[in-house]
Amino acid sequence: MAIKKKAAKPGKRPEPSSSTAEFEQLLKNAVAVEHYQLRLFVTGSSVRSTQAIENIRSLCEEYLHGRYDLEVVDIYQQPGEAADRQIIAAPTLIKELPIPPKRLIGNLADRDKVLVGLNLGKKSTATKWVKI
User: Fold this and answer.
1) What is the full per-residue pLDDT of the chain (132 aa) written as tens digits?
2) Distance between CA atoms of residues 32 and 54, nearest Å
């Protein structure tokens, strides 16, 4: 005796499991949150390096709280890292994510320029280098 399978009605999808339905609902309600990956190259504990660290941490906590990773690299301690990234001046902040990558040079004291450089302020042009 042959068993016949019941044919699915055209245009009708099978009911999703509750976990799939919940996941799809979460996706619909999710807000796209960009996570920033930053790397700051400094020269020891110089005044400019200390200022740059304080300035970027303050700005990140104000504008990116919980949405950023900041790595501080001392080029005296890790010269190979600076050479690999072609760092020619310090302090230099590299925004690796979200794309496009950008480099900001200086002590990061001009908050408006840093916000534009990190795409947190006004929309910037395709400039990849911003002197601060």
Assistant:
1) 555 555 555 555 555 556 777 766 665 555 456 899 999 999 999 999 999 999 999 999 999 999 999 999 999 999 999 999 999 999 999 999 998 899 999 999 999 999 998 988 754 445 556 566
2) 28
Contacts of 37 (CB under 8 A, 6+ apart): 68, 69, 95, 96, 97
d(CA 39, CA 91) in angstroms, rounded, equals 10
Closest CA to 51 of 118, 108, 103, 113: 108
Which residues have CB under 8 Å from 119's CB, separation 6+?
98, 102
pTM for the model stands at 0.67
